[in-house]
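In line with agreed milestones, the collection of sequences with tokenised folds has grown. A representative record is reproduced below.
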Amino acid sequence: MAKRILLLAGDFVEDYEVMVPFQMLLMAGHQVDAVCPNKKSGDTVKTAVHDFEGDQTYTEKPGHHFALNADFDSADPARYDGLVIPGGRAPEYLRLDNRVLEITRHFAANGKPIAAICHGAQILSAAKVIEGIEISCYPAVAPEVELAGAKYIPNNETFSNAHVDKNFVTAPAWPAHPEWMRKFLTLLGTRITP
């Protein structure tokens, strides 16, 4: 049965972390509403491509213009079955929006599946919904996760692991997409058969 998913985006969201889950969830037959504060359906957000090229941190390059397909102001979290929070730079300022935090709290309080990747954990931390939860995220976000009362789950060397604790599916970066989305689909109750 198709589920309805809310995806929180913003300018300079990580390109792969917004595009790939959006497309994968659509491919699995779900409805995905991509929204951004102060933007409407048909507006776009700029994305950034983060890559791991042997430097002390990721590199950043211009990405695409990702089209939103729903209005943030009319998004009612009660009408959704799951939440996706991509990473990149967007979570840094999205966590300052009270409604973003209220939406996140709704999903957490109701035990609905939440998939957050990379810097998406900044929103989970700011919403104060992860105390006592094991959370994976980009390593630079680990101090925020721990200050929010969560246990940081370190990434492996390839950033390809994903972690589930209760209704939270978290991962350190886009190389974890296959495992991150597989675990999120499992929490949603999605069955894909050949």
Observations:
- Residues 43 and 82 are 22 Å apart (CA to CA).
